[in-house]
Amino acid sequence: MEGADPNEQWRTIDELARTSGVTVRNIRAYQSRGLLPPPQVKARTGYYGPGHAARLELIQDLQDEGVKLDTIKKLLDTTGGSTEQVVQFIRTVRELFAPEDRQLVQLGELAERYETTDVGVARRGVKMGLLRELGDDTYEEISPRLMNAAAELTGLGIPITRSLDVVEQLRKHADAVAKLYVDLFLGEIWQPFDASGRPDDQWPRVYETIERMRRISGEVMIAVLELAVAERVDVTFGRDIVRNVRTSSAPATAPDATEG
Length: 260
Known about the structure:
The protein is mainly α. The chain is built from ten helices and five strands; from the N terminus they run ααββαααβααββααα. Strand 4 and strand 5 form a beta hairpin. Helix 8 packs antiparallel against helix 9.
């Protein structure tokens, strides 16, 4: 291939399909949707290099996790994912922010754990992205920590449906918080790095920065939550105390003169 590294392996679309396990039809579909860059053409034959294979593998990994193609395209477009380094970066970032080992669980186990026979609970868990249905009444827990927390709340006498209500609301707020941090990283770290041509010697700094931001974001969220809860407790219980004080200090109703 002209201008290509002779040590890199370039494949035709049929060879790429065979080695990747992705059909030729899907490879062409990914290209038409802008998910996969066009091949290099030589003698009217298209050839695909390691960058194509790496991106194709990432697309398959994300799809296996339930990520939609439109979302994958936005992810790749945001980072300008045209190199193996960028594909590896996306995979690394996802691993940093999704460190939990997923667990398999049976529907019966879920029913026992959350003290309910309502199969709608499992369906709701799938819809919320907490569970992934695998068939044969088997599910994959996307976040075992969240599922365990819900089980502990159930042990306190709080119905699982109520716990899911709370998680659903928290997820909406978390999405907004996540956007703030992602925008901060893109604007202050990634875009200057990208504009400079993504120097090879700066990649370690980018990885270190995203790792430190992951740690800092967690610490900030805990601190902000503790402040907010403390203030909310003060306000809520303060009102109750004031209300009770007013009630107890109110003058007693004079007895009816007709009584006795």
